[in-house]
Amino acid sequence: MIYYYALIAILTFALCGWLLSFATRHYSHVDSMWSLFMAITAYVTAIFTCDLSLRAALVLAAVTLWALRLSIFLTWRNWGKEDHRYETIRINNEPFFVFKSVYIIFAFQGVLGWLISYPVYSAVSSHTPLQWLDYAGLSLFVIGFYWEVVADWQLMQFRAQPEHDAAVMNHGLWRYSRHPNYFGEALIWWGFALFAATDGNVFIWFSPVLMTFLLLKFSGVYLMEQTIHRRRPGYREYVATTNAFIPGLPKSKRADHD
Q: Taking a C-beta distance cutoff of 8 angstroms, is the pair 194, 133 a contact?
């Protein structure tokens, strides 16, 4: 039942986001809300769970750190402009998109966030003593968080230089993966699943599988690379030499080594 209370809270928050879009006719702020959907699940669960465990405290701290960092970063990045993805969605769903967006964008992302946050609910409500899986989960979270934060920072520094307006970022972590920030995000959710794995609930694995699928085939790698070739002419060469998701040495380097 607590998990469904979280859904009600998330959808209420999503409705507030839609009301803001109704006034502004902008939709990119849903990106800033995305990580907060998962944080809502964590805190609603904590409110209704008696005698929170050490695991719950660790997961709450991790979710808070991840959610606030990502929300603040995306708010700063999108401030004063509309993401081209939402412009495309709007054009494809006119007329009356301002009303359709309540379910196409806000409710849809809210429900997705609720489904993905299931391991967080399971871990926060668990009272099983800490096990090695928790330490493995914490390790994956730390690695994933580091990978995501550093990748975002490197890309932000690169794009801040006017001469890089149409250039391809292929330095730092971006030398080993075309989407290192997405890779870090996936690791974070596999980490949360490990936190919840001690109770033997097999449904927790749906979350990291779904998140990885979304990052690879839906809203992440696939969607980003549909149009980036037009904006960055050198991207095709980058694709030919660099892994899309899992980091690895540039292909030319591997060939030279072999």
A: yes
pLDDT given for residue 78 in this prediction: 86
**243-to-5, 197, 233, 239 alpha-carbon distances in Å:** 40, 30, 18, 7
- The Cα–Cα gap between 45 and 47 comes to 5
Question: How many Å apart are CA 193 and CA 225, to the nearest integer?
Answer: 28
What is the predicted pLDDT for the residue at 256? 42
Contact in structure between 127 and 59 (CB atoms under 8 Å): no
Residue 235 confidence (pLDDT):
86
**Closest Cα to residue 33, out of 54, 50, 10, 56?**
10
Residue 173, judged by CB atoms within 10 A of its CB (0-12, 13-18, 19+), counts as buried
Mean pLDDT by 10 residues, the chain (258 residues): 96 96 90 97 96 95 98 91 80 90 95 97 95 97 98 93 86 94 97 94 96 88 74 85 92 50
**CA gap 41, 46 in Å, rounded:** 9
Q: How many residues would you count in the chain?
A: 258
Cα(133)–Cα(74) distance, integer angstroms:
31
Distance of CA 235 to the CA centre of its chain: 23
b (16+ CB within 10 A) / e for 58-96: bbbebbeebbeebbebbeebbeeeebebbeebbeeeeee
**Residue 63: which residues within 8 A CB-CB, separation 6 or more?**
38, 39, 42, 120, 192
Q: Which 8-state DSSP code applies to residue 220?
A: S
Distance CA 246, CA 183 (A): 6
